[in-house]
Design brief:
This protein has 29 helices and four strands. The N and C termini lie far apart (101 Å). It has a two-stranded antiparallel sheet. The protein has a two-stranded antiparallel ribbon with strand order 3-4. The longest helix has 30 residues. One of its GO terms (cellular component) is nuclear inner membrane. Keywords: Glycosyltransferase, Membrane, Transferase, Transmembrane, Transmembrane helix. It is found in: Membrane. This is Probable C-mannosyltransferase DPY19L1.
Length: 660
C-alpha cells in the first residue's frame, strides 16, 4: 500500500511538473516576442504585396486613364473617394476640409456634414499625408510620377501615370515608416529615398496603396493574436497560413479598397490583441489600458458597422465574467475603457444619431450595472443560474434603454437593419429590404463557404479547438476546475481558460453574423484562423510531447497546403482589365454638355460615379444609413420608374437631371 501511495505521489509530482513546464512554454517570453514580431513583419510585407498584385492583375490599374480609374470605384467606393479627391484638389487643406463639413453636393438641396455621416476620417488623414508629400516633392523639384500614353484600340489615346512597378509595396512601406516614425525633420530624407521609386505622386495611386499598406497589418494582427493566445509561435504560423490559404473568404480589400471595412478590419485584430492581453494578465499598466481606448477609437471611427462588432465583444467579455474567469474590477475597467472610446467617437463624429441610438451604449450601461451588482451573486449558489440571470438582465436592459433613447431622439437610423433581419425569418419585405436582399452578399451563408474552409482544414481545426474549450468550460461550470474564489479569481486560470473562452464566444458571435449575412464572413474567417492556431497548444496541454507537438503542427500545415496553395495560386491566375466605355461616355457627356449647376438623380451606383467624375450635385447616393435619405430615395425611385428622362438618346444609362 505504501508503495502504491508512493507511486501515486510520484505520478502527481510528475504531472504537476509537466503542467508547469507546459504553462511556462506558453508564457509570452522575450524570445517568443521576438519570433512573433518577425512573423508579424513578414506577414505584413507578404500581405501588402499580395493585395497590390491581385488589384493590378484584376484591373490593369497601372495602364488606366485617370477617368477609368475613377470609374472603377463603383457605388460607395466612388462616393468615399470623391471626398478624398476634393480635399486633395482643393487650393488649401482647410478649404477642402470645410467643403466636406458643409457639403451641398451630396444630398442636394440639403447641406450636410459628411464627416458626421460617412466616417471619412481616413480620407482626411490620407489627404493630409498626400498634400504634405506633394509639398516636399515640389520643394525638391520632383514630380513623383512617371507618365506615358496608352493606345486603346478604337478608342482615343489616354495618359496614365504610375511607375512603382516591382518596388510598389517597398515604396509604400518606406513612406509609412519614415513619416510616421521619424516625423517632419526627416521628411526630406524620406522623400529623397522614396523618390527612387516614382509613382506615389499620383493621388489615386497614393490612396490605393496606402490602403494596401494598412491592410498588411491585418495579417500581422492575426499572426500576433494567434501567437499570443496559443503561447507558441507555431500557433501564429498556423493562424496566418490558414488566413492566406482562405484569403478569398477573409477579405475583399483587393477588389474594393475604399470601403470602410478596408480601414477598420486591420485595426480590429490589433484591438482584439490588446483586449486578449488584458483578459489573460492578472494586472495591466495604464499604458495598456490607454492602448485599448485608443485602438477602440481607431476601430470605431472609420466604419459605422464597428459598433455592432464591439457589441459582440462586450457580450463575449460578459460571458467570461459570468464564468468568474476575470474579476469584477477588471470587467468594469474594460467596460469603462469602451465607454470612454465610445464617448470620444460620439464627439469626433459630431453626435452621429446612428451611434447614439445603437445597442452599444445601452449594452455598456447594462453590463456596468451587472458588474457593480456582481458582489451579491453569491446569494445564488448554482453557477448556471447566475449566468442566466446576469445575461438576462443585460439583454432586457439593453433593449429597453435602446428603445427609450431612440424614442426620445426620434431616430430611425437603424430601422432598415431590423427590417433586413425580419425579412430573413418571415415573409416581410418592403422597398428598402428588397434593395439589400437582392444582393448576394446579404444572403445567407452558402454551403460552398463551409466546403472551401473544410478542404483547407481551417474549419475542422477550428471546430476541434472550440470543442476542447467547450469541454473545459463545462467542467469549470460544474465545479471540476474550482479556482477557490467566489468573485475575484485568477486572471490566468489553467490553460489560459479566460482568453480561450473569450475567443470561443467571439467566434460563436461571428458565426451567427456570417450565417445571417454572407458579407460578414469577413469577420468569421480571420477569427477561425486565430482559433485554429489554438489547436496544437490545446492538444499539447493534453499530454503531447514536444516532438509530437512539432510533428503535429507540420502535419497540419502540409495537409492544409494541399488545397490552400491551390487557392493562393488561383487568386493570382485571375487576369483582367477594367473597361467601361458607356460610363466613360456618360461622364464626358455630362462634363461637356451640362452646366456645373445641373443636379442629378438616378440609380445609386450611377450617382456616386457622377459625383466623383463630374463634381455635379446629386440628390441620392449609395450610403443608405439615414431614414431621411431612404425616404427621399424611395421617392426618386418611383419617379425614375415612371418618368425616366434621357437627355441624350444614345446614353445607355437612364438618369434624371434638373437645374438650379
Amino acid at each position: 500500500m505504501r508503495k502504491r501511495r508512493g507511486e501515486k505521489k510520484t505520478r502527481d509530482k510528475r504531472s504537476v511538473k509537466e503542467t508547469a513546464q507546459i504553462d511556462e512554454e506558453q508564457q509570452w517570453t522575450p524570445s517568443l516576442g521576438s519570433w512573433a514580431i518577425a512573423l508579424a513583419i513578414g506577414a505584413c510585407l507578404l500581405h501588402g504585396m499580395h493585395l497590390a498584385a491581385l488589384f493590378e492583375n484584376d484591373r490593369f490599374f497601372s495602364h488606366l486613364s485617370p477617368l477609368e480609374r475613377e470609374l472603377s470605384f463603383r457605388t460607395e467606393m466612388g462616393l468615399y473617394y470623391s471626398y478624398y479627391k476634393r480635399i486633395v484638389e482643393s487650393p488649401s487643406l482647410l478649404g477642402g476640409v470645410a467643403s466636406i463639413l458643409h457639403d451641398n453636393l451630396t444630398e442636394y438641396p440639403d447641406t450636410i456634414n459628411t464627416l458626421q455621416r460617412f466616417n471619412l476620417y481616413p480620407e482626411v488623414c490620407l489627404s493630409v499625408m498626400f498634400r504634405q508629400y506633394r509639398w516636399c516633392l515640389d520643394l525638391l523639384g520632383m514630380s513623383g510620377m512617371k507618365c506615358f500614353s496608352i493606345t486603346r484600340g478604337d478608342g482615343s489615346k489616354v495618359e496614365a501615370c504610375n511607375g512603382m512597378g516591382d518596388h510598389m509595396y517597398f515604396y509604400v512601406l518606406c513612406v509609412v515608416l519614415c513619416i510616421s516614425r521619424y516625423g517632419r525633420p526627416h521628411v526630406l530624407l524620406c522623400i529623397v529615398c522614396c523618390s527612387l521609386y516614382p509613382g506615389m505622386g499620383d493621388h489615386m495611386y497614393f490612396y490605393v496603396h496606402m490602403i494596401f499598406g494598412l491592410n498588411g497589418l491585418l495579417a500581422s494582427g492575426i499572426a500576433l493574436l494567434g501567437t499570443f493566445v496559443s503561447g507558441s509561435v507555431w500557433g501564429g504560423v498556423l493562424s496566418v497560413t490558414t488566413f492566406f490559404y482562405n484569403h478569398g473568404q477573409s477579405t475583399r480589400v483587393m477588389w474594393t479598397p475604399p470601403l470602410r471595412e478596408s480601414f477598420a478590419m486591420p485595426l480590429l485584430f490589433l484591438q482584439t490583441l490588446i483586449l486578449s492581453f488584458i483578459i489573460r494578465k492578472r494586472s495591466c499598466s495604464l499604458v495598456v489600458w490607454t492602448s485599448l481606448v485608443l485602438a477602440t477609437v481607431a476601430f470605431l471611427l472609420p466604419w459605422q458597422f464597428s459598433q455592432f462588432t464591439l457589441l459582440t465583444q462586450v457580450l463575449s467579455v460578459l460571458v467570461v465574467h459570468c464564468l468568474r474567469l476575470i474579476s469584477s474590477q477588471k470587467f468594469l475597467r474594460i467596460l469603462l475603457a469602451y465607454t470612454l472610446a465610445f464617448a470620444v467617437n460620439v464627439v469626433l463624429q459630431f453626435g452621429n444619431n446612428m451611434l447614439l441610438t445603437s445597442f452599444l451604449p445601452s449594452c455598456l450601461l447594462s453590463c456596468l450595472i451587472v458588474g457593480l451588482l456582481s458582489s451579491t451573486s453569491h446569494l445564488l449558489k448554482f453557477r448556471p443560474l447566475i449566468m442566466v440571470v446576469e445575461v438576462s438582465v443585460v439583454i432586457v436592459g439593453s433593449v429597453l434603454m435602446k428603445m427609450g433613447v431612440a424614442a426620445i431622439l426620434g431616430a430611425k437610423e437603424d430601422e432598415h437593419i431590423i427590417s433586413i433581419l425580419l425579412s430573413k425569418f418571415t415573409s416581410y419585405h418592403d422597398f428598402h429590404t428588397q434593395l439589400y436582399t437582392c444582393a448576394a452578399e446579404f444572403d445567407f451563408l452558402p454551403l460552398s463557404y463551409v466546403l472551401d474552409l473544410t478542404w483547407t482544414l481551417l474549419l475542422p481545426m477550428s471546430v476541434v479547438s472550440m470543442a476542447i474549450i467547450t469541454v473545459r468550460v463545462v467542467k469549470h461550470i460544474f465545479g471540476k476546475e474550482e479556482t477557490g474564489h467566489s468573485d475575484d479569481v485568477m486572471a490566468t486560470p489553467p490553460g489560459d481558460l479566460a482568453v480561450q473562452v473569450y475567443h470561443l464566444m467571439q467566434t460563436v458571435a461571428y458565426v451567427v453574423m456570417a450565417t445571417l449575412i454572407m458579407r460578414l464572413k469577413l469577420f468569421l474567417s480571420p477569427q477561425l484562423a486565430v482559433v485554429a492556431g489554438l489547436l496544437p497548444s490545446l492538444l499539447r496541454a493534453s499530454g503531447l510531447s514536444r516532438s509530437q507537438y512539432k510533428w503535429m503542427v507540420a502535419g497540419l500545415l502540409v495537409c492544409s497546403s494541399l488545397k490552400g496553395w491551390h487557392n493562393f495560386h488561383l487568386q493570382h491566375s485571375v487576369i483582367g482589365e477594367y473597361n467601361n466605355p458607356e460610363g466613360e461616355q456618360l461622364a464626358l457627356w455630362i462634363r461637356d454638355h451640362t452646366p456645373e449647376t445641373a443636379v442629378f438623380a438616378g440609380t445609386m451606383p450611377t450617382m456616386a460615379t457622377v459625383l466623383l467624375t463630374t463634381g455635379r450635385p446629386i440628390v441620392n447616393h449609395p450610403h443608405y444609413e439615414t431614414a431621411s435619405l431612404r425616404s427621399e430615395f424611395r421617392g426618386c425611385g418611383l419617379v425614375h420608374d415612371f418618368l425616366t428622362a434621357g437627355i441624350e438618346p444614345t446614353m445607355s444609362t437612364p438618369y434624371l437631371v434638373g437645374s438650379r
